Amino acid sequence: MAIGRDEFRAALAHFASGVTVVTTRDDEGYLHGITVSAFCSLSLNPPLILICIDKRTGSHYAFTESKFFVVNILHEKQQHYADRFASNLPNKFERIEFLTNAKGIPILKDALVNLECELINSYNNGDHTIFVGQIERTVINDGKPLIYFSGNYHKIKR
Questions:
Q1: Distances (CA, A) of 139 to 71, 72, 111, 125, 152
Q2: How do the pLDDT tens digits run along the chain, 158 residues long?
Q3: Domain coordinates of the chain in residue numbers?
Q4: Whole-prediction pTM value?
Q5: Which of 17, 79, 112, 147 is the most buried (most CB within 10 A)?
Q6: How are strands ordered across the β-sheet holding 31-36?
């Protein structure tokens, strides 16, 4: 028998992770972005990553429509981005500095890392969809990552 939702959440809250905002564009040209902590590397050759997105998220459909997305790994000074893209605001990109790539996908400026991806596969599992992307281009900036642990944001201290 599987554990309950509350026990599952409590257990996984003890796993520290970086914070990403994943962006895309739907078929009508509207920009979408959501805060995602379920992100990891999958393969070195070819260079693949995966993200997991809740099917109930308002932007889920945009990720199923689009063939491209960008994973923006947040810098420690970008908690406001994480909060904004986790919200239900109608225009999450308002007052956010971003560029668009050649495919029209938003790229958050000054993120620690930007990974421009082509969607390779998607898998429906439980209440989430796993999206697998092949990295086409990266931008890597100096700095430290924003960390999420036990329901709060943290910074690495050195």
A1: 11, 10, 9, 31, 27
A2: 888 888 988 887 878 899 999 999 999 999 999 999 899 999 999 999 999 999 999 999 999 999 999 999 999 999 999 999 999 988 999 999 999 999 999 999 999 999 999 999 999 999 999 999 999 999 999 999 999 998 899 888 86
A3: 17-149
A4: 0.94
A5: 112
A6: 31-36, 20-25, 68-73, 113-125, 128-140, 48-54, 39-43
